[in-house]
Structures are given as structure tokens and as C-alpha cells.
Design a protein that fits this description.
mainly alpha; MetI-like fold
Length: 294
């Protein structure tokens, strides 16, 4: 009897080990380091809440640029990317198997090739000379007369980063929604039509979304996490960290700047803990919205 009870834990052991090593331990270490002054060489010096106090009162870059940029980026990329993922998944669910599979692969592929695509494609699109695709197209249309240096103009950097982030946001959340849509029983729609549901909008609102709340929750959590973690886009497109005049500087970039450029690991850990708290808050709201009520 004892052997039978321990069998599930034996199967869970590899996951628990990996989860502890790569998630729990780094998180605990980050929280501990956030209370220290640590330069990655000398022994950490305990400074209490100094890093958090400096973050909220002394770090003008964080307060004026990083935090507003991060919130703006997340509020646009998170909800818009989430709704776009659901719309695309719902649209593909209306197709037959072969075109649905091909289109799903095309839509999902940018999330797997994000770094390569930004280096090869998006930099070519937004080159700051006449050979850039965007400048060439706008010149041919007569919209501009001189090339725009996209990645140095602070008016365009954040919109471009948001566009690229949305383009690459159709990841596992999109696939989960598509799987949820394909597993809804057609009998539910037949019963709904008998009960008075007359159009696609009513079907989506009364049948589709309530029937796939677990997938909707997973997609919402992934959208939140991806929105707050998508910091490398601006750095890769502009080629610098911080980005020009902090126009697209996000919390992830701020952590990398202090942690791996200035080697102020304790302060970088405090910023990462703050980011973790923000992500958890938004994920908690998403769980409240989509968790089944007893």
C-alpha cells in the first residue's frame, strides 16, 4: 500500500527537482539579494530596505521612464495580444483541418523565431535610410520626402516595439485557446440554438468562452507574463541598453542594465522582485476573472 501511494510522487520527482532548481531557488536568492549591496565579486553586504527605498524615491529613471513605459507596454500588448490570440484561434477553429494546421503553424512560428526575426527582418524594415522597407514604401506613397531614422526617433521607438511584440505574441497561449475551441462539443451549440441563441456573437459570449475557461485563464496568464518580460525587443532593435533617451526602456532592461552592466546585483534583484510582484498581481486578477466558481 505504501508503495502504491509513493508511485505518483516518483513520477513527479523529476519535475519537482527541476522546478525547485530553476524556479524556487533563484526566486529565493533574488529576494535575499534584494536586501544586500552585492557586486558579484565581494561578499554581499546587508542593507535592509535601502534598495527598495532608492527604487521608489531616488531612481528618477525608473520613476519617469521605466515604470510608465512598462505599464503602458503591458496594458497594450497584454490585452490586445490576448484578444488577438482568441480572435485568431476562433477564426482558425472555423476552418477544416489542413488549412487550420498550416495557418496555425504560420501564426505560431514568430514566437519561436523572435530573436532571429528581429535581427533579420524588422531591422531591415525599419532601417534609417532609403533602403529600409518602411522608408521606401512611405517615400513611394509620397507620405515622406526624407528617410526617418526610426530607431533613434523617440516618437517611433515604443510604437515599433509594441508592433513587434504583438507580432510575436501568438505563443502557447494561442495554441491553448485553439485546442480549447476545438474540444467544445458541437451539441452545445445545437442546444443553444434551440434555447434562443441566434448569432455568432451570442455563441461566443454564452457558449464558447464559458466552455473554455481553463484555456482562457492559461492564455491570460501567459499574456501577462510575456508582456512584462518582453524587454529585449527594444534593445535588439536599437542595439543599445538603455534605449535612446529611455524611450522603450522596460523593467527587464533596467534589471539587465544594473545587474550585468553596472554589476549592482542587489539593486537589480530589488527591481526583479518588484517586477515579480507586478506580474503576480496581474496574474491574480486574471485568475479571479476566469477561475470556475463553485
Amino acid at each position: 500500500m505504501r508503495t502504491k501511494r509513493s508511485t505518483p510522487y516518483l513520477f513527479l520527482m523529476p519535475y519537482l527537482i527541476l522546478f525547485s532548481v530553476f524556479i524556487i531557488v533563484p526566486t529565493v536568492m533574488a529576494v535575499a539579494l534584494s536586501f544586500t549591496n552585492y557586486n558579484a565579486v565581494e561578499t554581499p553586504e546587508v542593507v535592509g530596505l535601502t534598495n527598495y527605498i532608492n527604487l521608489l524615491t531616488q531612481d528618477t529613471i525608473f520613476l519617469q521612464y521605466v515604470l510608465p513605459n512598462t505599464v503602458l507596454f503591458a496594458l497594450i500588448v497584454g490585452p490586445v495580444g490576448y484578444m488577438l490570440a482568441f480572435f485568431l484561434a476562433w477564426s482558425l477553429s472555423q476552418l477544416t483541418k489542413l488549412p487550420r494546421t498550416i495557418l496555425a503553424l504560420i501564426i505560431y512560428s514568430p514566437s519561436m523565431t523572435m530573436g532571429v526575426a528581429m535581427t533579420v527582418m524588422w531591422r531591415v524594415v525599419f532601417l534609417g535610410n532609403q533602403s529600409g522597407i518602411a522608408n521606401y514604401a512611405l517615400t513611394q506613397l509620397g507620405i515622406i520626402t526624407e528617410p526617418i531614422v526610426w530607431m533613434l526617433n523617440t516618437n517611433y521607438i515604443m510604437p515599433i516595439v509594441i508592433i513587434v511584440a504583438l507580432w510575436g505574441s501568438m505563443g502557447v497561449g494561442f495554441l491553448a485557446m485553439l485546442a480549447g475551441l476545438l474540444n467544445i462539443s458541437p451539441e452545445l451549440y445545437e442546444a443553444a440554438s434551440i434555447d434562443g441563441v441566434r448569432n455568432r456573437f451570442q455563441e461566443v459570449f454564452y457558449i464558447t468562452i464559458p466552455s473554455m475557461k481553463p484555456q482562457m485563464l492559461f492564455g491570460a496568464v501567459m499574456a501577462v507574463v510575456n508582456a512584462f518580460q518582453a524587454g529585449n525587443i527594444g534593445v535588439m532593435l536599437t542595439g543599445s541598453n538603455p534605449t535612446p533617451q529611455y524611450a522603450a526602456q522596460l523593467m527587464v532592461n533596467h534589471i539587465e542594465d544594473y545587474g550585468f552592466t553596472r554589476y549592482e546585483m542587489g539593486y537589480a534583484a530589488a527591481v526583479s522582485v518588484a517586477l515579480l510582484g507586478i506580474i503576480y498581481t496581474f496574474s491574480f486578477v486574471a485568475r479571479k476573472l476566469f477561475t470556475e466558481k463553485d
